[in-house]
Prior knowledge:
The complex is a heterodimer of chains A (227) and B (218).
Chain A (H helix, E strand, L loop, with lengths): L1 H47 L4 H15 L3 H11 L9 H26 L3 H9 L4 H31 L11 H12 L2 H30 L9
Helix pairs in contact in A: 1-2, 1-4, 1-6, 1-7, 1-8, 2-4, 3-4, 4-6, 5-6, 6-8, 7-8
Chain B lengths: L2 H43 L3 H16 L2 H14 L6 H26 L3 H9 L4 H31 L11 H12 L2 H30 L4
Helix pairs in contact in B: 1-4, 1-7, 1-8, 2-4, 3-4, 4-6, 5-6, 6-8, 7-8
Amino acid sequence: MISFFAQYPEYWSDWTARLLQGGVVTAKLSLGGFALAALLGSLLTWALRSPFAWLRRSAVYFIQGMRALPLLALLLALYFSLPSLGLTLSGFEAGILGLGLQGSAYIAEILRGGLDALHRGQRESAIAVGLTPFQAFTAVILPQAIRGMLPPLLNAYVSILKDSSLCALIATDELMLAARAIASESFLPMHIFLLVGLFYFVIAFPLSLLSRVLEKRFSRGRKSLRG
Amino acid sequence: MSSLQTFFGLLPLLLSGALTALEIALCTLVLASIGGLVLAVWLTFSRSRLVQAGIACFIEWMRNVPALAHLFLIYFGLSYLGINLPAWLAAIVGLSLVGSAVLCDIFRAGLQSLHVGQYEAGLAVGLTRVQILANILLPQSLRRSLPAFANYVTQLIKDTSIASAIAVPEIMFLARNLVTSTFQTSLIYFAVMCIYAAMILPIGLGFIRLERHWGSAR
Lengths: 227, 218
């Protein structure tokens, strides 16, 4: 056990430098994916509430389709089969696109749930006192709905962060690929993959914790039975 | 050769991969359900702080680290320690560990949504703790956990695709091999997506029916 950990000091500076480099790419990848997912997810939510049936229906099909598809299949398809259609993406770009497309389905569900949780009367009374529909949305609906949305949105980001590790399989120089490269050079896979797990954990765990704290705070006053 | 012929020529191989994926998913589902249930019951009824902290650490580690890292850790890491698992077994072990953490959270939420009075009433009429659990608490809590459980099952089938990274011959792995030998990239990935949809959509519908007949919202 002690000899196991004795390996770390020797390689520490080299490993952490390379993993941090990968970590920066992972951060960009996951934040970019989340931003795209939030944008597309908002569009989908808007489409779900549109007066046009065909728009609502295509949004539903898109969401169901994305949820039935493994991210890895999506990433490989984007990376390897788009070039035959004349569009060549780097691993990083394909990664952001894939994470964004799949994430948008989940985020659309979160946003829809958050908006549905508010009573219709909120919007109606805002319009009755003379706000425009846009003002009603930004000044009345959104500030209330965001409280319910924030914890699941944080969880969605954590999922996207974890899923971004799959981009290693389409040759994006992110954290997991850096770890694999080090593992195959050093022949110390156990050490590396524990360390890289810790890297992900250090980012993801505080966010998960924050999500739980917010959820508890926002649901205060709503009584639930607990044994 | 027309692309339709190619499509049907590739299908048998991809379907054999689908079978492997389903086998892995099924084994994982059984192991993860047992693990998750045991952990959830243990966590709910244990008074030992140490046990609770230990299970909490396990859950947080499993849930905040990518599944891919767990698979690499088990497949490459354990072989470094002299334990050589075949790839399919490493995939099952890794996915089961992650799954038991996810399911533990789901089952625990179901258990804790029940009123403590149910437990006390069971004790009052002279049932043992095991009887209370098996006859009163679990049937109700599992019904409440059904929607989240259904989500986990569909997620699990999708996650079997990660096993291709450690060379388990499931759909994604076979698809990537086919792509390098036939160069029919778009066609193959289209077939792969159809197969996943064909596996996942019926299961989703099945769970909706199950919920209607057996779920908590009857």
